[in-house]
Amino acid sequence: MQALRGVDIEIGAGETTLLVGPSGCGKTTLISVIAGILRRDEGECSVFGTDLTRLSERELTAWRGRNVGFVFQSFNLVPTLSVAHNVALPLLILGEGFASALRKADDLLARVGLEGRGDALPAKLSGGQQQRVAIARSVVHEPRLLVCDEPTSALDAESGQRVMQLLSEVARRPDRALLVVTHDSRILAFADLIVHMDDGRVHDAVRPKAVMEVA
């Protein structure tokens, strides 16, 4: 059984791309291939000019650490680490100093509405708060590619808008890109490109802002 077939898309630098479609249509599989988490069986996948299939596992891990921020649907926070340490973790892995990493973590926690919660353990937070921690962790090392699986699913409208604004700011640079899987129609206005998927295929890609400008 093929999870993906007939997928042909180009994600522009400096843009926010939303992947939409029914559950089980291949959206999460596609972003996992693009982010270098899953290996493809055939076809081509080049990210920032790098063919990921040419990298060894060690090289691929290092490439992900430098270039990719990933917001998992299940958050994947480390339960024994404080919120601030969870956010600082990518920087610490890359060798940044402890004090500097925690300072950047605290700044990002304030931006997602969690100022003063850095010492708490993840279990003490609500699902929506944990999701915001996961998002802060994904952007703290300023990745070139930010990949998010349902980043606003556990958030109310106001929090979702705030989070998407933060994510969009990260992507709005010529050497960066934001790729979001979503069922949340409230965030469609943030998209530069909306890609519709079904049954492992891309059916169409629409630039809603261009359509609105023409209209």
Summarize the structure in words.
The chain has a domain at 15-79 and 143-214: Rossmann fold (3-Layer(aba) Sandwich). By secondary structure, the protein is of the alpha/beta class. It has a six-stranded mixed sheet with strand order 4-5-6-1-7-8, with helices on both faces. A two-stranded antiparallel sheet has the order 2-3. The N and C termini lie far apart (42 Å). It is built from seven helices and eight strands. Strand 5, helix 6 (157-171) and strand 6 (177-181) form a beta-alpha-beta unit. The chain has helices at residues 27-34, 57-67, 83-93, 98-111, 127-139, 157-171, 208-214, and strands spanning 15-20, 46-47, 50-51, 68-71, 145-149, 177-181, 193-198, 201-206. It is globular.
Spell out the helices and strands N to C. EHEEHEHHHEHEEEH
- What would you report as the Rg, rounded to the nearest angstrom? 17 Å
The fold-level CATH name of the domain at 15-79 and 143-214 is Rossmann fold
* Total beta-strand segments: 8
Superfamily at the CATH H level of the domain at 15-79 and 143-214?
P-loop containing nucleotide triphosphate hydrolases
Q: What CATH architecture label of the domain at 15-79 and 143-214 applies?
A: 3-Layer(aba) Sandwich
Query: Which overall shape is indicated by the principal axes computed on the Cα atoms?
Result: globular
Report the β-strand fraction as a percent range. Answer: 15-25%
Measured between the Cα atoms of the first and last residue, the distance is 42 Å
The low-confidence runs, each spanning 5 or more residues with pLDDT under 50, are 211-215
The largest β sheet comes out as: 6 strands, mixed
Mean pLDDT value: 86
Query: What is the highest CATH level, the class of the domain at 15-79 and 143-214?
Result: Alpha Beta
- The total of helices stands at 7
